[in-house]
Design a protein that fits this description.
- By secondary structure, the chain is of the alpha/beta class.
- It has six helices and five strands.
């Protein structure tokens, strides 16, 4: 639904499809995996209030809300727009795609013009989703679900506002092993907190 640093947009379709009606993403980010299955009961969690506010806006928005958002010419500022805070963050993520936080000024890389209509066509499908401000260790791992666990990477996740430095990966590994249902955990080569094996080079 929005462009974000570390998004699984290019990889999401390669993972096994969900076997449960419920999908839980303890590290929501842009939730690229869940976005492939908008009809599921999706529960997103994130410790970054900006991510949570962006998703709160998207979940409540409808097609008209998105289409009514203004253009974003190169050099224009998102922070001065008279729109909801979540919408400003949303447009800020498109102002410079792939950033770890929304940008204030639209760059030449901005793809908001192309993305707006696509987003408008998809947003009504997620109005039953739930987003909460919270950490993975506040979630009951015994909830039957497809768990898509994509934390800031152990060695490369330092660029996020709430990055890997605040994660106890040993505890997170234990949590993953306790999750009930279908569990998909993502990492990068070199991670050692679970017995990861190479999945896809892309």
């Amino acid at each position: 639904m929005f462009s974000y640093y570390g998004t699984k947009r290019a990889l999401a379709s390669y993972y096994d499809p969900p076997r449960y009606k419920t999908i839980i993403e303890p590290f929501a980010g842009a939730a690229a995996y869940s976005c492939l299955y908008p009809d599921r009961d999706v529960f997103l969690f994130d410790t970054d209030p900006i991510i949570v506010t962006t998703w709160q806006y998207l979940i409540k928005a409808n097609r008209k809300d998105i289409l009514d958002l203004p253009d974003l010419p190169i050099g224009s500022r998102c922070d001065s727009l008279d729109i909801p805070e979540g919408a400003r963050y949303l447009m800020g993520f498109f102002a410079n795609p792939g950033s770890a936080q929304p940008k204030i000024t639209a760059t030449a890389r901005s793809n908001w013009g192309r993305a707006r209509s696509d987003l408008a066509n998809r947003v009504d499908a997620i109005n039953h989703w739930i987003i909460e401000l919270g950490s993975w260790n506040t979630i009951d791992p015994q909830t039957p679900a497809t768990w898509f666990i994509d934390p800031p990477y152990q060695h490369a996740g330092k660029w996020y506002r709430h990055g890997s430095g605040s994660i106890d990966f040993i505890d997170l590994g234990s949590f993953c092993n306790c999750c009930f249902g279908q569990v998909i955990v993502c990492e990068q080569l070199g991670a050692d907190w679970l017995p990861f094996t190479p999945f896809k080079h892309i």
